[in-house]
Amino acid sequence: MNDEDLLADRFEEHRGHLRAVAYRMLGSAPEAEDAVQETWLKLSRTDVDEIRNLGGWLTTVVGRVCLDLLRSRTARREEPIGETFVPDPVIRPLTELDPEAEVLHADSVGLALLVVLETLEPAERLAFVLHDMFAVPFDDIAPIVERGSAATRQLASRARRRVQGANLPTAPDLARQREIVEAFLAAAREGDFDALVALLHPDVALRADSGALVRGVAASKALRGARTVAEQALMFAPFARFAQLALVNGSVGVVNAPEGQVLSVMGVTVADGLITEMYILSDPDRLARLDADSSVR
């Protein structure tokens, strides 16, 4: 085995961690993979003998790559993130419900948190993700954002207040989630409006992101309230028979794939036996970039 192969093997040991960092930074699984690949290219052009801590070096490099991508994304964006935006989900088969194992996966960060992270400035997001989620010291983050350690600490603090203020759900009970989501799908298939309302929190929030080109009843929308969301569910009830349960960002969700073509992915937040949030991605272009169909087989 030559030196390049040895370096590739060492890099592969860190790939899962780097993917987790990049996904939390970017909210997009395909972009996270691109960032990880860019990190490998940078490593392959670097004198490894000068690197004392490979894992730490790779983490800061992938963070810098993601920061550049976020800044570029912000510069291109004509309007701020709207209330219908849904991050790219990560989908895996719903096999064994093992909450302890779920936290080991890169997608165990929920869609609700990713939505909040999208509202942060790029430097705030980097400081929060690297420090609060991956325990990277502020002294190591500071050079990436080109600020002192104290200023970097303030970036993370501002981000932390925003995240804490969002009142995000705690660790999920996957078995209970599955029970509630299955009941919701059954009610939708049967057209039972009252049963749907009973499963929804009175102030349930729904985000449906269909992309910029979809119009009509399937267009992007943000809805709130049990009766309003239940009416929306009945409108699309004919598609409920194609729904498959899957793990969406570590929680029980739904993939709608008639004839194997993924039309939508729905993430769900369940609290106290009721659905409190629903995140639906049905943007054809973004779904085409996800490996959703192979993830639910």
List key phrases describing it.
seven-stranded mixed sheet; 13 helices; elongated; alpha+beta; 15% strand; disordered C terminus; 297 residues; single chain
What topology does this entry show?
Layout: H1 3-26, H2 29-44, H3 54-76, E1 91-93, H4 99-102, H5 111-118, H6 122-133, H7 138-145, H8 149-165, H9 174-190, H10 193-199, E2 200-209, E3 221-224, H11 226-235, E4 243-248, E5 251-256, E6 264-271, E7 274-281, H12 284-289, H13 292-295
Parallel strand pairs: 2-7
Antiparallel strand pairs: 1-4, 2-3, 4-5, 5-6, 6-7
Helix pairs in contact: 1-2, 1-3, 2-3, 3-6, 3-7, 6-7, 6-8, 7-8, 9-10, 10-11
Report what the structure shows.
By secondary structure, this protein is α+β, with helices and mostly antiparallel strands. Helix content is 53%, strand content 15%. The protein contains 13 helices and 7 strands. It has helices spanning 3-26, 29-44, 54-76, 99-102, 111-118, 122-133, 138-145, 149-165, 174-190, 193-199, 226-235, 284-289, 292-295, and strands at 91-93, 200-209, 221-224, 243-248, 251-256, 264-271, 274-281. Strands 1-4-5-6-7-2-3 form a 7-stranded mixed sheet.
